Amino acid sequence: MTTKILVTGGAGYLGSVIVPVLLAEGYEVKVLDNFMFKQNSLLECCANEHFSVVRGDCRDKATMKEVMKNADIIIPLAALVGAPLCKIDPIATQTTNYDAIKLLLSLRSRGQAILYPCTNSGYGIGEKDKFCTEETPLKPISLYGVTKVESEKAILEAGNAISFRLATVFGTSPRMRVDLLVNDFVYRAVTDRVVVVFEGHFKRNYIHIRDVASAFLHGIKNFDRMKNEPYNVGLSDANLSKLELCAEIKKQIPGFIYMEAPIGEDPDKRDYIVSNEKIESTGFKPAHSLDKGIRELIKCYTIIRNARYSNV
C-alpha cells in the first residue's frame, strides 16, 4: 500500500524541491498551499497520478481536518520564513508558524508521523569556537526563530516526530529565493560584482536544498530509529563567516569585489558554528558542496534577474 504524505506549504522554496523527490520515490503526495507568492512551481507534478493539491490555509481547522485524513506522514513546511518577513507581519507569523502547528497536533491521530523543518538559527549567538549540538540551549533572537523553536518543542513533546534543525539553505528551486545568504551573495556577485558586508566575522552553517530533501527522505526511511529527536542538518565543512563565504564565491567569480563596512551593523545577529555529527551517525551524508552550489547558482542567475524571487 502506497504511503501517503501531506506537505503543507509544499509550493514554497523547500517544498518545490522536496515534493518531486517524494513523488519520484513512489509516495502519494498531497500539497496544501495558499500560493501567496503566486508561484507555479509544482506544475511539473500535475501529470503524476500520485500528486494532488489543495489551495487553502494551514490555519483553517476545517481545511486541515480534511487534508489530514488518511495521511501517514505530515511534513508541515507552511510558515512565514526569515526574520525580515516575520518582522513585517508578526501576527501572521505567530498564527502560521506556531498556532497552526498546535492545530495540526490537536487534529493528528496517534499513528501519523511528523517530520518538521526547524532552523538552527535557534542557537542565536553561540560561544566562540564551540560547536552547537542538539544539546546546546536554544536562544533564538528573532520572532522567526522563537516561533520555530516553540513549534519544535510542541512537536517533539507530542511524540512520533523528527525535527530537522536546518542550516542556512542555498541552491536553486522552482520557487526561487534570492534573499537567503549564499543565494543573495552569489546574486550580487553575478549582477553587481560587488557586496558590502556588515559584521563579516559572524559565522553560520550552510546546506544545499537538495540535501534538505535527502534529509527528509532519510528521516522517512529511518523513522523508527530516529524518531522523537532533533537533528542538525548542515555541511560539516561549511561553518563559515560571511567574509569566508565571499572568498569562496570569488574563487569562481574572480571579478567579484567584497569589503567589510567600517561602520554599521547587520540586523541579523546570528553567529554560531554547528555540529552535524548526530545525523551523520545515522548514515546521512550531504551530496552537494558549497562549491557545487555556487556553480549552480551562477547558472541560475544567468536565467533570472529579478528581485521578485525573495520573501520580502
Automatic annotation (TrEMBL):
Domain NAD-dependent epimerase/dehydratase, residue spans: 5-234
Name listed for the protein in its UniProt record: NAD-dependent epimerase/dehydratase
Top-level taxon of the source organism: Bacteria
Source organism per UniProt: Pelotomaculum isophthalicicum JI
InterPro entries, alphabetized: Epimerase_deHydtase (IPR001509), Lipid_A_modif_metabolic_enz (IPR050177), NAD(P)-bd_dom_sf (IPR036291)
UniProt-listed Gene3D superfamilies: NAD(P)-binding Rossmann-like Domain
Any matching Pfam family: Epimerase
Biological classification of the source: Bacteria, Bacillati, Bacillota, Clostridia, Eubacteriales
